[in-house]
Amino acid sequence: MSPAPAAREAAAEPPAEPGRPDAGGHRPAKEGSTVSRVPGRTPVRIGPLSAVWRPRTVLVPCAIALALCAAVVLNTGRGDFPLSPGDVLQALLGTADGVAELVVWELRLPRSVVGALVGASLGLAGAILQGIARNPLASPDILGITAGAGVGAVSVIVFAGSHGAAGGLVGDVGIPTAAVTGGLAAALLVYVLAVRQGISGYRVLLVGVGVNAALTSVLSWLLVKADIVDAGRALIWLNGSLNGTNWDIAAPAAWALTLLLPAALLLSLQFGALAFDEDTARGLGVRMTGARAALLLTAVLLTAVATAATGPIAFVALACPQLALRLLRTGHPPLFASALLGAAVTVWADFLGRTLISGVELPVGIFTAALGAPYLLYLLVRSGKARTS
Fold first, then answer.
1. pLDDT higher for 10 or 70?
2. Cβ neighbourhood burial of 58 (10 Å; 0-12, 13-18, 19+)
């Protein structure tokens, strides 16, 4: 039997020369080159390592980083002694006069640094939790971790506050510790109640919503029980504010992010495998329960430390991972971009909260909640349409 005409033509056609496209439009790799082009993707190979070049994964984080730097400069110059962006940059470089350097380095820069650290921690924690639960609604605010931290901090304010058994320095030192302890306890409760021969993301979300409702009720009872002074102090903390922050508050948040961000990035391979179903992830060699437990612990520690530093800042952990996912067009929330976007959104929210209404300084938590509530409604409506379609 003779071969088909198309096969005879293909056999007779000479092979494409290196560097020239073949009949299908594909450009073969040049001899000795480490880079070749395939349709839609550009693989880069360096020795035994290979990766796919995606310009969006580089350009979008760079744009977010520029937005973060702009927010820090503008927010640092805002105050009773206004400084232009040029004055702020000179003070940061050490070329301004002594007064400007004192105002920038000692009084105002800690506020923006704490905002960036807390926002980055919340954005990273939200990306991890949404990846584990495979649900855009999963965040520390929804799963009860933030409420647990709030119960711990408000308990110290009410029972050991200005009118309690202990006050002053003891009460101030106890609030961050109690917030971290409360957040860890809430996460442990969710983990114990949700685990059933492994961790299911859907079950974690349902249990977390229930734990959050119970802890919110406890928080309301504590506010009712407190006297007027302690209740006002607790409400200020619960609204999440960067007012009064200093380098002593920035240091624990910086250490936590320095240790936990590399840990989260090292777990990114397991995190990416969690986007597949159970059988596929196990086929890739990922131990699902161990990977989820390690990622969940990382997210809880990030949330607890961030909440202890400034109080709950709502909706940053919920919205930023989904915004980063849409900007980078990835299959699951990107970890590094979510952290970067969380930092930028928090600092910009603090700047706008101090600027939009003359004479009124809104806490950053109130401003992010005002922006995040419509986004939460959008997610709920969209998930409802997806279930009915």
1. 70
2. exposed
Q: Do residues 329 and 161 lie in contact, with contact meaning Cβ atoms separated by under 8 Å? A: no
Tokens 């390690």 belong to which residue? Answer: 294
Name which of 273, 294, 320 is nearest 139 in CA terms: 320
- Asked if 178 contacts 157 with a C-beta cutoff of 8 angstroms, the reply is no
φ, ψ of residue 223 in degrees (nearest 5): -70, -35
Q: Which amino acid is at 38?
A: V
What are the tens digits of pLDDT across the range 195-244? 776 666 678 788 888 999 999 999 999 988 888 888 888 888 888 888 88
pLDDT band of residue 6 (cuts 50, 70, 90) is very low
Phi, psi of 126 (to 5 degrees): -65, -40
Tokens of 172: 């101030």
CA dist 238 and 240 (Å) reads: 5
**CA–CA gap between residue 310 and residue 336 (Å, rounded):** 22
Nearest to 58 by CA among 260, 367, 334: 334
The greatest distance separating any two alpha carbons of the chain, rounded to the nearest whole angstrom, comes to: 100
Instruction: Please give, one letter per residue, the 3-state secondary structure of the chain.
Output: CCCCHHHHHHHHCCCCCCCCCCCCCCCCCCCCCCECCECCEEEEEECCEEEEECHHHHHHHHHHHHHHHHHHHHHHHCCCCCCCHHHHHHHHHCCCCHHHHHHHHHHHHHHHHHHHHHHHHHHHHHHHHHHHHCCCCCCHHHHCHHHHHHHHHHHHHHHHCCCCCCCCHHHHHHHHHHHHHHHHHHHHHHHHHHCCCCCCHHHHHHHHHHHHHHHHHHHHHHHHHCCHHHHHHHHHHHCCCCCCCCHHHHHHHHHHHHHHHHHHHHCHHHHHHCCCCHHHHHHCCCCHHHHHHHHHHHHHHHHHHHHHHHCCCCCHHHHHHHHHHHHHCCCCCCHHHHHHHHHHHHHHHHHHHHHCCCCCCCCHHHHHHHHHHHHHHHHHHHHHHHHHC
> What angle do the packed helices 335-355 and 55-77 form, to 10 degrees?
30
Round to whole Å and give the CA distance between 223 and 231. Answer: 6
